[in-house]
Amino acid sequence: MAYSKERYTMQYNFNEIEAKWQKYWAKNETFKASQNSKKEKFYVLDMFPYPSGAGLHVGHPLGYIASDIYARYKRHKGFNVLHPQGYDSFGLPAEQYAIQTGQHPAITTAKNIETYRRQLDQIGFSFDWSREIRTSDPSYYKWTQWIFIQLFNSWYNKDTDKAEAIDTLIAKFSSDGNASVNAVCDDDVVAFSADEWHAFSSKEQQTILLKYRLTYLAESEVNWCPALGTVLANDEIVNGVSERGGHAVIRKKMTQWSMRISAYAQRLLDGLEKIDWPQPLKDSQTNWIGRSQGAEVIFPILAFPKGEGTRPGYLTGGNNSHVLLERAKEMRNNPTQAEDILWQSLKSKNIGYKFRRQHVIGNYIVDFVCLTKKLIIEVDGGIHDAQKEEDTIRTAALNELGYEVLRFRNEQVIGDIDAVLKEILQSLEKIVVPPSGARGISVFTTRPDTIFGVSFMTLAPEHELVTQITTPEQKKAVESYIEATAKRSERDRMADVKTITGVFTGAYAEHPFTKEPIPIWIGDYVLAGYGTGAVMSVPCGDQRDYDFAKHFGIPIPNIFEGVDISEEAFTDKEKTIITNSDFLNGLPYKKALKTAIYELEKIGQGKGKINYRLRDAVFSRQRYWGEPFPVYYVDGMPQMIAPEHLPIKLPEVEKYLPTETGEPPLGNATTWAWCTEKNEVVPNSEINHTCTFPLELNTMPGWAGSSQYFNRYMDPQNEAEIFSQEAINYWQDVDLYIGGSEHATGHLLYSRFWQKFMFDRGFVPKDEFAKKLINQGMITGTSAFVYRNEDTGELTSKGLIKGLKVTPLHVDVSLVNSSDELDIETFKKTRPEFKDAEFILEDGKYIVGREVEKMSKSKYNVVNPDDIVKEYGADSLRLYEMFLGPLEQSKPWNTAGITGVHGFLKKLWRLYFNDNGSKVTDTVPSAENLKTLHKTIKKVEEDIANFSFNTSVSTFMICVNELTAQKCTSKDILEPLAILVSPYAPHIAEELWEKLGHSESIATVAFPTFEPKYLVESSKEYPISFNGKMRFKMELPADLPKEAIEAAVMAHEKTKEQLQGRTPKKVIVVPGKIVNIVG
RNA sequence: GCAGGGAUGGCGAAAUGGUAAACGCAGCUGGUUUAGAACCAGUACGCUGAGAGUUCGAAUCUCUCUCCCUGUACCA
Question: Pairing mode, if any, of strands A734-739 and A770-775?
């Protein structure tokens, strides 16, 4: 009996070992990163998880295992390693669960975190749990709120190309106004002087500053999801529906907080060059930012339709208009003969345009004016000959105000009224009046070199000019087109790219150079949200324009030399030679581009411009379970709460839905007002708008809490600062960041933005937060299927379904063994609907079908790590996940293979122990032993450097197989081996280490040093190939010179056999590698 | 359409200019102890998606094509 007990303890009892060491690590805080260490730092970070209710499946730990191996390896290499973990614990699922059950999201979140922690702990990660953070914890989101305030109090100075404190902007405004300020700001800022700045009211000043702040409140069109009751960011929408739940999304105007990320577009692009991130990830950020270089061109609008167009203000007078108005009235009542004749023809839209007489414009009273066309008609008597000079000044002043002046003499009007009217009409037709302040249609183009190829213009149906320029004849067609496109969802519009639709507005624009009229169309291939929402259409140089022109029979002028455009547009920039283009003739693309921009700038109708696709990020969400803003409102203007009063804690609410009046869920809170005297949150009833004000009802989006969390880990308990200068200066940045590629344009872009902002404001020393990033691939599930015969209802084994009409049905993967046989009895028990099903077997077995799919509950292919750990142990799970294949590749899970790595661990254990106890001796290791060990050290170090963890697991297997065959028992080999294995399989390594007689943890023991001398071979087995095909092998001394090798090979009888008497043309000898005989 | 990645035994894969398939799973044969199963020994299969080029030699480099995956999209 005693013997069998002894035997039991000497078995590899992984469950016991793993529990023991997990407890030891926790108790001794083995992996606590030291805050003041003389060691070199190394920061290994995982993307922290959102703690969902479903818990972890085997796909989740993949990245964590890889980073853990790296972190443990770095500890062995003598680094002070920071390897923290936390939870991104604000989010929609907890809130929706709360809506359904009434359970507070904080409670479900805490419960989920508990599950996650248990699951993570049992895998044996070396996280420094003393640094755990949770984004939903007020002590953490205090700093998210703090950063928001910093952003609010900053503006982007384009001259210094960085964010600066808002005070510096205010100082500029008070000394010079805003004329000299070169900032990233809203489009609609108007110029003001220092005096005007001082004259503005506080509210006006705040309104102006809001246009410059890095986070600002603006009415913007947002993606509103009625089903979720919230706004979604662009990256939260997939194929026109919400990423979560697939609900419809519509465009809606709302006042929202926005982040001026567009200020950083260029730097976010430039920064990609200095970070070691995967190329596909960099590419998707590059595409997302979408830089395109070209020009903005303005096309004046021609020929406003008669009587239509913009409605200019009636009161056009200057400062003395009250005096002039009296005089004008008088003059109206006493017209001259000529004036009267003309008025009879002009009044009541007689010639199609509305005219006014004796109208005050600026400081003048003009005889007649058409306000829509800004055309003034003056009828001069003899007196004007004497005051020619004065009239010139008058005309110039009116021109300055944007009016054309047409002068006629009394005699002309009286003598030939028809000729006068004809001239007036001609002028009216010709005059272009830019609507509502704009000077024409502004377009963005990357091909200003093709400007002479423009044969029409296209506006997005939503473009604001559409309603203003459409002619009465086209009005009906345009309106019905707009209605039709509005009905089509974004999804339909995307799916249906091939169908060409559009309609002519009836209006024309004027070509900047040829002055030819260009018809203006609207078409839904032009997107309102990109560029200016209008394009200059060059059918010969753009396929979409080409298709549109072909479809509607619009001319397609060719401006490319020697190119046939009868079938399709010519888009090859490099081969472009411009022709039929006036001053651009004969120029290649690049030169033509520059020249076109130069000429456009010269005539003031365009300029070179860089356009970005990246839009400012909407930062408000109409949700409960998110960070509250540290903002209250005074007279409609947002005010920041002073940082010393943070955190502003999320208030309690009755229910988590929007209020009946459509306000966000925080509108349900009864204690949600800010008292500026007590500096605390007080009941809403105390709101008096003098010292107590309403608080912001929106909360921050999901990415708020994750955009700086990596820096908070450096000093997570600091209550006075987001992190101490000491901590940030020591830890600097993340050395290795591992996580999924799905965050490419969300978290990873926003984090880089905030990091650059923090850098600009001097809070952090690095403007990129992660030097190296790795995307682990997804682990997919291997679903299993049974096949139901549609005719008989029988379940047919996979090999017999050919020719039958069968429906595949998912079965739980846990009921299938490694040979794809179904456990029929258990299947019947767990799926009552198949209790009496007839099974058609092959060779007495039911074989299931297999297919690789994403892991999901509904597919019955989810594999839970808990079960694996229980059955094979954490070390087996860790090794197996690494062994599956390259880290970055997506790969299917198949539990069957785990017996391989599990067997390896048992074999490893038996190197150290047999039934009687330890086998380890002080025997001097053989050369063979040392060769195996050092070969392994070399390969494993190379593999870790390349993140090739799958091959190092193979290397361990080879090593253990070899040492077992060598019957190695030497401590000098087995000790270093335990260290080598420890990053991968830490539990067994600790146990072996302890059994070898050590009392300290293996975690920081120095990694064995590779010594090349043990790998030196005295001989080499040369592969001898003939014409590149290996035929036989030959053992030769390793240091044999080239000539001797050749001689030895040629003398070999097998060589003669291969050559069959032929003389080789050539013999290639690569010493140490190969011999190749050609001939 | 564009961008990126990929295609090697029945399966996961290794080899990045020099012996293709290491390592593991599954298969097959034999053995040992079995309640299940575990362990040990042995073993077959396979020529790198197709074609061309460079080379003494190509899975690896170049070109053309096919297919698959990921991302993205009337981006002017």
Answer: parallel
